[in-house]
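Our preliminary data section would be incomplete without showing what the modeling component actually yields. Below, a chain of 194 amino acids is followed by its predicted structure, encoded as tokens that our downstream tools consume directly.
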Amino acid sequence: MGFLDVILGRSKPVRPDLDQLFALPSAAITLQAGAGLTPTGLGSVCFASVEGGAFGQLQQDVRALLDADTERGGQPVEFSRDAYGYTWLLARQPPEDTAALVNDLHAVNTLLQEGGFGPQLLCSLMGFRGADGRSLALVYLYKRGTFYPFAPVAGAGDKRDNGLELQVRALLANDLRIEEDLARWFPVWGAPGL
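Predicted structure:
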């Protein structure tokens, strides 16, 4: 960053630290032991869509990479677009194989980043569910390099289980880099994989 950038308050975009995702299997064990939440086997990546042939080819490459995993028990990847125009990629693995799911999420993110679409990456999430029906997502924010828990209350519209989110924050303090600024714990209502 140059002298004028500092004076004018400009900054370079933060490069995502994708290796942070590899802490999720350990966090999953902690969540299961401490809160009774087990992985669902669902995970997703959210990114801002870009039109054009290069991006279309990249989506095909991602699909080919993850769909090849169907031969080993995985399920085909799904793409969807939310109401805000963001693209979501949903990956599935057996619930007990969090490492395979994390590898899929990391591979997708790496392909996007290496394809020059790193700035379009918004977040990744991994879903969890309790025996009592509670759901939770651990959300990774690329631009911050941090995680936060998101726990929607089933059947209550746009209501969150703040108590569960704070409990998970305390449980995972030693497993994940948790986002300290609670204002950045954005809701991801209806996210695939939740």
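The radius of gyration is 17 Å. The longest strand covers residues 37-48. Preliminary results of this kind motivate Aim 1 of the renewal.
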